[in-house]
Amino acid sequence: MQTLALDSTGLEQAAQIIRRGGLVAIPTETVYGLGADALNAEAVRHIFEAKGRPQDNPLIIHVPSADWLETYCHDIPDAAYALAAEFWPGPLTMILPRREIVPLQTTGGLETVGVRCPNHPLTLEIIARAGVPIAAPSGNTSGRPSPTTAAHMWEDMDGKIDAIVDGGPCGVGVESTIIDLTVTPPRLLRPGGLPLEELRRVLGEVAVDEAVVRKMADDEHPRAPGMKYRHYAPKAPVTVFTGAPAATAAVMASHAGAQTGVICFDEFAGRFPGCEVQTLGPVGQPEAHARRVFDALRHFDSTAVTEILAQCPPETGLGLAVANRLKKAAGFQTVAVPSGRPLWVLGITGGTGCGKTSLLRRVAARGGLCIDCDAVYHRLLREDAHLLEALRVRFPAAFAGGALDRKALGRLVFGNPAELAALNAITHPAVRAAVQQTLDAARADGVSLAAIDAVGLIEGGLCALCSRTVAVTAPEQARVQRLMAREGIGEDYARLRIAAQKPDAAFAAGCDDVLVNDCPDAAEFDRCCGEYLDRVTKDI
Ligand code: TXA
Ligand code: MG
After folding, report:
1. Distance 181 CA to ligand 1 centre (A)
2. Do domains 4-212 and 344-536 have the same CATH topology?
3. Tally of helices (H runs) and strands (E runs) in the chain
4. Is the pLDDT of residue 232 over 90?
5. For burial by CB atoms within 10 Å, which of 111, 351, 379, 485 has the most?
């Protein structure tokens, strides 16, 4: 089908398409909707088809004023009129008992119907001209982020619907707030463009549905059926970081790599060099965050990112809706970054194949900032002019071609303790200074948990930067097995790699604690790491 591009000059045409049972994308102040005659079961069926939406997920109907409520709903409480008087036209959907005239196809089989009066002049005009309520879910393909521009609508619906009316970018940017008025007390089913605080001001007590705050299990049935589906999700997995903005930015930056997508407040965009960054607007401007959030989520699908890290705004006012959209995009995968206490630093060391990574993952899951000293070292070798100059003077042979040849440098010190000591005397202070700088910055940002991961934790003097140190060790046979499985290498090579490192006892000697990984499997050791962290962080 050829999809027509319409604008404010094509409203009569849009209304005609609706009247004869077609599908039209309509602009609203929240998000673009995919509209059809709400009273025409066949037209409504096409909405579900075009979106790929499950049939049991009801549509809301759009009316031009509260005067239409009586025609489509019964047993309307005074509260509905009070809300309409305050907030319509606007981003509020009310769930009320349905009259028979609204087909069950529209309500997904429910005896209730969601009604809203949108605040957009073009769409109000189209409804008035069509003379019927317009059923309209958000215009995205089911599961994708909601559309907030006509361009988003073309992305998802070109060729699938009769027309797209361009009414400019949506002013609010997140969908309407949904309040269920058929229960006592009224219940918030979806946070949206109208803050919960505003509803409570008019209604008094308002309950918040469980589906707003946590992931629904497969066998659970939230009151808004749509809340159980995976939503708003880009292709790459999303993790949401909650906490003080400076602290979350610092922790996210420590976890971000070249393939990472980042959603952050404007102030922190510079913290993620090399990452694919989408900004939400400045801290403290929830209206901007709401307008940006879906476009930011959508953006990553046209990039090669393999993960997305997102800063979460505080969950008050409009922030509740923005946080909810981000968390739903993340399948409620969130990390709470602790802040407001003095920075506590765990130094982690140990040989390859012992399980340091499990402990680091545990620190990360608690919102800790993780410093990989190997990565710091390699960054310095690329960027630190002073370090490179010192190396050039002491190891000219490693600069035969002009630039540093890391392999040549490795050959010069391999098996030669005196040369290795000379190299360490140059590199250790540089790494230590860089780590110190990162920790100082984290402290200034209010971060209160960090880990330093370093093979040379003790001899490099990094332990002096730590509140506590731990060596992760494991029986040799277990390390061999793990290395072989992890890196697909043979047994002899695995043993060689282990023999080239310091013995476990040497790692253990310099540390406050030793965590012995003699667990039969990774899950068990993961639990041990959790218990260890609980123990050592108990009193901080
Ligand atoms: O801002 C909005 O509300 C946008 C614009 C286009 O108006 N529309 C929108 O519709 O977001 P949709 O279908 O994407 O989301 C409506 C949500 C769904 O989660 C649905 O399950 C729920 O409302 N819903 C609809 N009717 C309901 C009812 N009778 N009872 C409970 N939940 C209902
Ligand atoms: Mg939707």
Report:
1. 14
2. no
3. 20, 21
4. no
5. 351
Nearest to 367 by CA among 438, 298, 297, 446: 446
Integer CA distances (angstroms), 445 to 19, 167, 429, 505, in order: 57, 41, 24, 37
Using CA positions, which residue lies closest to atom 33 of ligand 1? 224
**Atom of ligand 1 at shortest distance to CA of 139?**
6
Enter the CATH code of domain 344-536.
3.40.50.300
Query: Which three-class secondary structure state does DSSP give residue 340?
Result: coil
Q: How far is the centre of ligand 2, averaged over its atoms, from the C-alpha of 16 (Å)? A: 25
Question: pLDDT tens for residues 363-421?
Answer: 999 999 999 999 999 999 999 999 999 999 999 999 999 999 999 999 999 889 999 99
State yes or no: cis peptide before 89, omega within 30 of 0.
yes
DSSP letter at 65 equals S
Extract the tokens encoding 281: 């607007």
The residue whose CB lies within 8 Å of the most ligand 1 atoms, and thus the one to mutate among 31, 60, 140, is 60
Q: Is the CB of 245 under 6 A from ligand 1?
A: no
With contact defined as beta carbons under 8 Å apart, do 528 and 515 qualify? yes
Strands (E), 167-211: 177-180, 187-190, 207-208
**CATH level 3 topology of 238-336:** Rossmann fold (3.40.50)
Q: Indicate whether residue 127 lines ligand 1 (CB < 6 A).
A: no
- Centre of ligand 2 to C-alpha 55, Å, is 13
pTM of the model: 0.93
- Ligand 1 atom showing the smallest separation from residue 227 Cα: 19
Query: Domain coordinates of the chain in residue numbers?
Result: 4-212, 238-336, 344-536
Residues 4-212, CATH architecture: Alpha-Beta Complex (3.90)
Distance from the alpha carbon of residue 160 to the mean position of ligand 1, in angstroms? 21
